[in-house]
Amino acid sequence: MRLTRYFLPTMKDTPSEAQIVSHRLMLRAGMVRQASAGIYSWLPMGYKVLRKIEQVVREEQDRMGCQEVLMPTIQSADLWRKSGRYDAYGPEMLRIRDRHDRDMLYGPTNEEQITEIFQAEVHSYRALPKLMYHIQWKFRDEVRPRFGVMRGREFLMKDAYSFDLDYEKAAESYRKFFVCYLRTFARLGLKAIPMEADTGPIGGNLSHEFIILADTGESAVFCHRDFVEADASGLKVDYEDPQAVKKVVDYYTSLYARTDEKHDASLFESEVPEDKRVERRGIEVGHIFYFGTKYSEPLGASIATPEGEESFVHMGSYGIGVSRLVGAIIEASHDENGIIWPESIAPYKVGLINLRAGDEACTKACDEIYAKLNEAGVEVLYDDRDERPGAKFADMDLIGLPWQLVVGPRGLEKGVVELKSRATGEKEEVSLESALSRLGA
Amino acid sequence: MRLTRYFLPTMKDTPSEAQIVSHRLMLRAGMVRQASAGIYSWLPMGYKVLRKIEQVVREEQDRMGCQEVLMPTIQSADLWRKSGRYDAYGPEMLRIRDRHDRDMLYGPTNEEQITEIFQAEVHSYRALPKLMYHIQWKFRDEVRPRFGVMRGREFLMKDAYSFDLDYEKAAESYRKFFVCYLRTFARLGLKAIPMEADTGPIGGNLSHEFIILADTGESAVFCHRDFVEADASGLKVDYEDPQAVKKVVDYYTSLYARTDEKHDASLFESEVPEDKRVERRGIEVGHIFYFGTKYSEPLGASIATPEGEESFVHMGSYGIGVSRLVGAIIEASHDENGIIWPESIAPYKVGLINLRAGDEACTKACDEIYAKLNEAGVEVLYDDRDERPGAKFADMDLIGLPWQLVVGPRGLEKGVVELKSRATGEKEEVSLESALSRLGA
Q: Which of A438, B116, B309, B418 is deepest in the core (most CB within 10 A)?
């Protein structure tokens, strides 16, 4: 993409309405614009990142055998009356009356809807387990939306649901999602630590939040250092083998890891040696939860058991805040100059800077590099604007592409270009051929 | 995908609520379920098709240089008050009041929103043209929703917007979309004919509906036979060359083609020789429209011209009904046994039928074929259920995958399998190797 054609409205000044760094950087980098309080329009570069994150989430759901569906945003209030949540939900639910005066709502989540779909079609234990997910926009009418896409009102979420015969089978599904989430966040370049979370009136230990560490995080977190150092990238597990899956979960639940909500200081001190105690701040990016027959009972989702009896299915739900992740990743990965994208979700891999757009040799070289990278399928954003080098460097650092390839007249005379890693700041003068081959072209 | 694991609730009986064939088939093939009046949940196979159509639409928008954004579903009423459409829109607009008593609405379209984004960021003719699209769910509160996804309340639409300096430049953008739509529908296996449409108070001739022929279509259409026979598949045009683009548009606007709304019987008879007159029914799947400064004026979207003056941008909008296309394609492509998917958007390319799931040799052969097709990246749905052959054939015809590969014990003894084309019904006994190679494995 050529910058002269791209719709990338970057800003030099820090917008006053943004309180946290990810919000500031997303506005400055031209990724989003606020449409109304807590509701954002995604501009081309922001949407590109959002879609890449969505795709990683999707691939990992598919890999574990979860099937993608799409439920609508607008739901019938009657469905929520069956579960008792229509009255219980409070003012965060966006309630709507349609032209025929029927009560509707903009879904904040989908337990009722997926349970209704399941109960109409599945009647035997033979069809179980069933794991289904969708990636859909939700609405929660926050009283004071803030922090940009981290706590907006309209937000994109992946929510998955499991249906199983009994608690034991439900726990197996739960553990698959646990492992799937470790893989997903690792692929997104994040270190996400599973932490015990509240299970509510159901009890048990099948509720975990996945938390990434960031100084600006909303919660205080306390955990064993081994979890901070553990690396789930490259984790390979056969999802068809419940024992292999359980082994991973057992390790990641063997040490202390809790947010302030569940923190127990004396337990922390007795379980974790002093030099292994980590106290930091964190951001929730995922939540998995077993809730038994809470929805299957009121919605009548029962199945025939192997013994020929009728039994309510055991369910769990599994969420990842997809649009929130864009902000969370920036919170975890930036410096004073801007965003530092992990390569897996960077909007473009390479930023090509033409230092002197008016110079014929420079422009010719850049055009050729641009064509070669495109041909090789390497995503490249080409700054072909007639701007000062300083402004180009600043914009490129701001938007945070992993690699910058700088082409200037002096370098060209020597036959070299500059290759800069955004993450490390390291710059190297290399031949054009070597730069291209290192970038995969 | 193995059918024993898939969530594909097919139905033998015709659902009574469905009046048209695409609605009946989508329900029977387990593609969608109604959530509430005119609002659908997309089950795995239906959603797979929807996403494939969406991806073709996206690729063709990208190819013409249109940039993808995503605007939210919930919009502020104030924005629509500026254009005057908040009061004008009528009861089809889903109006919402949030917890702070602010008037909001579920967007039925996005002219106001995109114009607001544009006017805040673009101030010079140098940045023009700007072409932007998004693929987002819309809501129109139809008084009597019907025909399944063909006329639902919550529906997925691609809407694009062009911003240009003046009428001449806007017409160039308009013509790019015209060609882009020809390519898009051809890739979807559709014959879509551009027909003159109403331009409203603006006048001129820059408004076309793209209509596919189907006996169940909502409108009567009248056109020159050459357009019915014209084939836009493989159409290659350099979008950077306005003359090449114009040439295509000139051809497709040179002959008579109108829906009943614009039909002029005497003109039809005088312009079209009798043997070339085609009268059929059609379904609208796209609409492109130039509307000048209708929104840029009230929303203050002006730019500096080359002469240093301020001028309101000239705009157009360009819609494709993405979820509607799923139904429209079925209307255009089915028989008495079920759906016949064009290969480009079929949920799976191959349906693999194990005629005797209890037979060891059959199952072994099928498992191997399944593995080979998957390895080669050929999408395959494997009917591994323990069901009668008749039920398997009926389901496979119903869901309409392009190829059926039938493996039975008698064939295996002779070393052959049966390959059936869903579109032609032709069956061939071929060796396993030859079947695999013809399917691309």
A: B116
Q: Which residues contact B403 (CB under 8 A, 6 or more apart)?
A: B349, B350, B351, B419, B420, B421, B422, B439
CB B73 within 8 A of CB A154: yes
With CA atoms as reference, the chain A residue closest to B63 would be: A1
Instruction: Among B9, B39, B132, select the one facing A7 at the smallest CB separation.
Output: B132
Q: Is B269 on the interface with A (CB under 8 A)?
A: no
pLDDT tens-digit profile of A54-82? 999 999 999 999 999 999 999 999 999 99
A104 contact residues in B (CB cutoff 8 A): 36
Among candidate residues A92, A129, A128, A130, the one with its CA nearest the CA of residue A109: A92
Rounded to 5 degrees, φ, ψ at B180 are -55, -40
Listed residue (A253, A58, A63, A60) closest to A175, CA to CA: A253
pLDDT at A15: 84
Please report residues of A whose CB lies closer than 8 A to that of B40.
72
Q: How far apart are CA B430 and CA B427, in angstroms?
A: 9
**Number of other CB atoms surrounding residue A323 within 10 Å:** 25
- Residue-level pLDDT at A13: 87
Q: What's the pLDDT at B384?
A: 96
Among B3, B31, B39, B58, the residue to mutate for chain A (most A Cβ within 10 A): B39
* pLDDT, tens digit (0-9, with 9 covering 90-100), for A178-231: 999 999 999 999 999 999 988 766 666 799 999 999 888 889 999 999 999 999
Find chain A residues with C-beta within 8 A of B39's C-beta. Answer: 72, 74
As beta bridge partners, residue B42 has A70, B32
Among the partner-chain residues B39, B69, B92, the one whose CB lies closest to the CB of A72 is B39
**Residue B201 binned pLDDT confidence (cut-offs 50, 70, 90):** low
Alpha carbon distance A173, A175 (integer Å): 5
Q: How far is B328 from chain A (nearest CA, A)?
A: 20
- A21-48 pLDDT, tens per residue? 999 999 999 999 999 999 999 999 999 9
Distance CA A267, CA B184 (A): 62
CB A304 within 8 A of CB A136: no
- At residue A202, the pLDDT reads 62
| CA-based nearest residue in chain A for residue B90 | A99
DSSP A14: P
Q: Let me know: does B97 contact B161? Beta carbons within 8 Å.
A: no
A73, A105 contact by CB (below 8 A): no
Name the residue in chain B with its Cα closest to that of A136. Answer: B137
Q: pLDDT band at residue B225, thresholds of 50, 70 and 90?
A: very high
Q: Which of B5, B41, B43 sits opposite A72 (nearest CB)?
A: B41
Mean pLDDT of B207-226: 93
Distance of CA A129 to the CA centre of its chain: 26
pLDDT at A201: 64
Give the nearest chain B residue to A2 (CA atoms).
Answer: B65
Nearest to B356 by CA among B381, B390, B380: B390
Query: Cα separation of A100 and A79, whole Å?
Result: 17
CB nearest A75 (choices: B35, B121, B153): B35
CA distance A120 to A300: 9
